[in-house]
Write the structure tokens for this entry.
Amino acid sequence: MTTVSEFKPGLEGVPVTLSSISYVDGQKGILEYRGIGIEQLANQSTFLETSYLLIWGKLPTKDELVEFEHEIRYHRRIKYRIRDMMKCFPETGHPMDALQTSAAALGLFYSRRALDNPEYIREAVVRLIAKIPTMVAAFQLMRKGNDPVQPRDDLDYSANFLYMLNEREPDPIAARVFDICLTLHAEHTINASTFSAMVTASTLTDPYAVVASAVGTLAGPLHGGANEEVLTMLEEIGSVENVGPYVDHLIATKSKIMGFGHRVYKVKDPRATILQELGEQLFEKFGHDEYYEIALELERVVADRLGQKGIYPNVDFYSGLVYRKLNIPSDLFTPIFAIARVSGWLAHWKEQLTKNRIFRPTQIYTGSHNETYIPIHERNCAINLEGETL
Ligand code: SDX
């Protein structure tokens, strides 16, 4: 029997799988994908090469990479029925909800569940990595009343996404910075959305349902949704002088400071360090951002007040400033996180299938037993004039 002392809220420190995909040392601030440091991948790899590494467990040869990139290019388009469905979405709806619905809708078109067939696995991986950016960009244009832009086969993955979003070819530096952002967000051990993907995968449902459930989990403000909230917070703070009182108020009211803290990292997230450097590169090339000084002061004040608790910037803190400089609206920050993280989810989906057992944890029951059912007319409760129970 499980005892209360064995219960770990939020499953803190509880291993739920054996995995060789990525590794985090939260005390030293180390992140590796398949044993390779995130800094090396950010500097030298591309998002698609990194995705291949995560999903197939090794760096591709030149030919393998060319073939993978070619397949992704070929599958970027989405069916007109999916576009038509998206046209019916309310333009006020959040892009993460649009993405979750659209990702799930892919299952209507490619629903075969041949999970023991490597070709099916490959097709599903390619389709999801290829089509998710197209769906994010399509919703962005359609909610403005415009037709979506078709993908351009002569552009690489990240340049094509920025092109579909802004209807013009991006500056090569902007496209490279964006690609590094995707690499940084691609995978991060058993975070909430990956766990959600694994639980869904463990029922042997299709990969589109796996990704749709993970997108829904990523959306929350305690997880991927924090990047959007960070920008709202910087706007609210408004000036460097307001940072101290703002932080003190949040601490006094036991509120969370968005973009700070992490279940695993007790030092600054290594991805936040790289994102900050990317932001600085962009500010140098495309002009300064007034919020950067506020962000720097916020990092300093939070370290001063909460550093002893191990609360430092996480991946969501500086990413918004980078995306803002790339002219990306703030409610697309989390969908962009999803574009990147789909590779990690798929890597865990594939790994889960090799040793699957359905996730079915237990609970510690705290309710009563042997209660008696009371018919509704005998229940002692007040009823108002409209006949509603109070
Ligand atoms: C991501 O898990 C991953 O790997 C996720 C991720 C990935 O790549 O997949 O890295 C991406 O989700 C980053 C996190 C984005 N979320 C935020 O920025 C929201 C703000 N942060 C927090 O709410 C919080 O730090 C979490 C959700 C990230 C972690 O939550 P935990 O591990 O459950 O920690 P907790 O809420 O129990 O806090 C522990 C203590 C508390 O103090 P005490 O009650 O013990 O005195 O630390 C304090 C908290 O109050 N604390 C914070 C804080 N984060 C923790 N206090 C103020 N502001 C914060 N942000």
About this structure: The beta strands are 22-25, 30-33, 36-37. The pocket of s-citryldethia Coenzyme A is lined by residues 10, 188, 191, 222-224, 226, 256-263, 306, 309, 311, 314-316 (CB under 6 Å).
